[in-house]
Design a protein that fits this description.
There is one protein chain. 46% of the residues are buried. The protein contains 14 helices and no strands. With 334 residues, it is mainly alpha-helical.
């Protein structure tokens, strides 16, 4: 068997393993929760979608949509992280660090406080995320290690500015609305259901379809702007397409889950070890890995201390911050 065939087989097996991990996490998330439900009862509820009763309500109206939303959020953040890291050739970049999440969160918070319907929150968040991405690129552009450092610093600065603006928005809200927005900003998908999943799923599908068309462009940009231009790529146009699609994907996730950080940085690193840095393989691997991570994290967040829930963003930050510091000390090749 040739080396190429062996490598392809290894990558396929890695994708199958990630897919299995996602389904195992989903199964555990459906079984465990603040209300213990026997597996047999859940299986019966799954096989009878029109059944009534407590178990059917828990399965169809609470846990199943929550698992699906967690999978969409994790897949979206994983794909967005791959695209941003390839664009900037920087392993420290993700939607959270780059300021895209913060811009989307600020725009979404303004939309929520203004009483917009959920269908309009993702496009509003998209505009905010794209504007922040453009500012970060303008402030942190440049090649080499200094360019990477400027990029991260610009993202941190813009995120801090957006956080301050969100505080101003909260100060103008009524106490009840303020509590709702604060719990959303902390990160979490509690209280979300099928309507939110439907709208976010539509926007994510558009973003994923666009990302699939940029595989060759992203692989070229991994080599640097000079090499990419030498291969015939219109670097400026490709850069803006990547930023626009990343902002759309991130906005779709932020609208339904709030600010969930570090998934877009951690997951691509793990996926890269399994399938290499080829974007054609890295995108699906990061989508599956991100879905598994967020499903498992959400299940843990709601089962550690029931009936209370640990905010999903807080839980992932406890893992993500040490990971960020480790990567900052020992950067990996893209």
């Amino acid at each position: 068997m040739s080396i190429t065939a062996t490598r392809s087989r290894t990558r396929v097996l890695a994708l199958l393993a990630l897919c299995a991990a996602m389904f195992v996490a989903a199964g555990a998330a459906l079984v465990f929760g603040s209300v213990p439900v026997p597996i047999v009862a859940l299986v019966h509820a799954a096989a009878h979608p029109y059944a009534t009763g407590l178990t059917a309500t828990i399965f169809w109206q609470l846990r199943l949509p929550r698992v699906c939303i967690a999978a969409c959020v994790g897949a979206g953040l994983g794909v967005a992280g791959v695209m941003l890291q390839a664009l900037f050739r920087n392993p420290l970049v993700d939607p959270y660090v780059s300021g895209v999440s913060a811009g989307a969160a600020l725009a979404a918070a303004i939309g929520i406080s203004a009483g917009l319907s959920f269908a309009l929150v993702p496009p509003v968040a998209f505009v905010g995320g794209l504007l922040c991405a453009a500012v970060v690129v303008a402030l942190g552009g440049g090649g080499g290690p200094s360019g990477n450092l400027r990029l991260v610093l610009a993202g941190v600065a813009i995120s801090a500015l957006c956080a301050a603006a969100v505080t101003l928005v909260l100060l103008r809200l009524a106490p009840s609305s303020e509590l709702s927005v604060l719990s959303w900003l902390a990160g979490g998908i509690g209280g979300r259901g099928w309507p939110e999943l439907r709208w976010s799923g539509i926007y994510l599908a558009v973003g994923f379809a666009g990302a699939a068309t940029l595989v060759h462009a992203l692989n070229a940009m991994r080599l640097g702007t000079t090499a990419a231009a030498g291969l015939g790529l219109d670097v400026d146009a490709a850069r803006w397409r990547v930023l626009a699609l990343t902002a759309l994907i991130t906005a779709s996730c932020v609208a339904v889950s709030g600010v969930v950080g570090f998934v877009g940085m951690m997951v691509p690193h793990g996926a890269r070890r399994l399938v290499s840095g080829d974007i054609a393989w890295l995108l699906p691997a990061s989508a599956l890995g991100g879905a598994a991570v967020v499903i498992a994290a959400d299940a843990l967040a709601r089962t550690v201390a029931p009936p209370a829930e640990i905010p999903l963003g807080v839980l992932l930050a406890l893992v993500g911050v040490p990971f960020f510091l480790m990567v900052a000390r020992r950067p990996v090749d893209l």
